[in-house]
Amino acid sequence: MKKRLRRLKGMSKLSNLHEEELNNEEQHNDEQRMEWIVAAEHKKERLDKYITEAVDNVSRSQVQLWIADGAVTVNGAVAKANTKLSEGDKIVLQVPEPEAVEIVAEDIPLEVVYEDSDLIVINKQRGLVVHPAPGHTSGTLVNALMYHCKDLSGINGELRPGIVHRIDKDTSGLIMAAKNDRAHASLAAQLKEHSVNRRYIALVHGHLSHDQGTIDAPIGRDTHDRKMYTVTERNSKHAVTHFTVTERINDYTLLELKLETGRTHQIRVHMKFIGHPLVGDPTYGRNKGIKMNGQALHAATLGFVHPTTGEYMEFTAPIPQDMEDVLASLRSR
């Protein structure tokens, strides 16, 4: 039995939204500009603290530098770092163009699933961040790719060479990178058209009552915790996840999930929304039950049309050993 899950009454389906697969965390279509309206629970909070919590991978000292340089306004006026906010204040951050940084190639082990002169497909290990960020320029997949490939596309700039899409640090599995701009443009276009086949394996809490279903609910930042995302109408983007139950084990369910869109934390947010959070998820999960070092989520299948040959290619990667161990333990009970 298949069910389409949508639990927000009165929520109209969003359309004609800018659907950028890589930078989907910004609140504004211009990736250098971010805007917020201060909610009641954040009144009297310092401006620098508010922005630090709202922007991923940025330090408070960096935010204070932006404020000192006049890159932040409150209600249209330049403000100070210690400005106390009021409900309804409009904050605008115009992120300055990043200064040139040197990303160093690092000999980090990679599991290469496929490689040619246009692209590379990696089975990323859990715990590996995909790309550098200001103040964090080492130990990432990009550093490893630079060592392994030597040549990567430059479309996404110095911090994200070759990166066409990404998966979370603690999500394992398949990710592709482009070695030249032509390949990058082709793969990015396929992502935008939703023609890339991306399937995940996840272990979630509880028993889903339907064997198949679709979660169609927009995702935006959580106003109570701006480093988290939630299903909401406000400042949100269209998000669709399809799921199929593959096994019910004790009080857990093993799922295959197919992404129709690629929002930040999409699967994790959608599964929490329907009451079945991912096992081990430190942000959206439960504090009881099975413990894992990160969420039980694995990008198992990746399929796309090769940018040069036009051939459809599909790759699979088995779930990592820690997930296998958890499943084996559950099945033995």
Q: What does this protein look like?
A:
The protein is an alpha+beta fold and 333 residues long. It is 17% helix and 28% strand. It has six helices and 16 strands. The strands form three sheets. Strands 1, 6, 7, 8, 9, 10, 13, 14, 15 and 16 form a ten-stranded mixed β-sheet that branches. Strands 2-5-3-4 form a four-stranded antiparallel β-sheet. Strands 11-12 form a two-stranded antiparallel sheet. Strand 3 and strand 4 form a beta hairpin. The radius of gyration is 21 Å and the shape is globular. It starts with a strand and ends with a helix. The N terminus is likely disordered.
Layout of helices and strands:
Blueprint (H helix, E strand, L loop, with lengths): L1 E4 L27 E5 L9 H8 L5 H9 L3 E3 L2 E2 L11 E5 L17 E4 L3 E6 L16 H9 L22 E7 L2 H12 L4 E9 L6 E5 L2 E4 L2 E7 L8 E10 L2 E8 L6 H8 L23 E9 L6 E5 L4 H11 L2
Q: What brief labels describe this structure?
A:
disordered N terminus, 17% helix, 333 residues, ten-stranded mixed beta sheet, single chain, alpha+beta, four-stranded antiparallel beta sheet
Secondary structure category: alpha+beta
H-E order: EEHHEEEEEHEHEEEEEEHEEH
Stretches where pLDDT is under 50 for at least 5 consecutive residues are 1-31
Please provide the count of β strands. 16
Overall 3D geometry? Answer: globular
Question: Strand count, sense and closure of the main sheet?
Answer: 10 strands, mixed
Q: What is the distance, rounded to the nearest whole angstrom, between the alpha carbons of the first and last residues?
A: 28 Å
Give helix % range. Answer: 10-25%
The number of helices is: 6
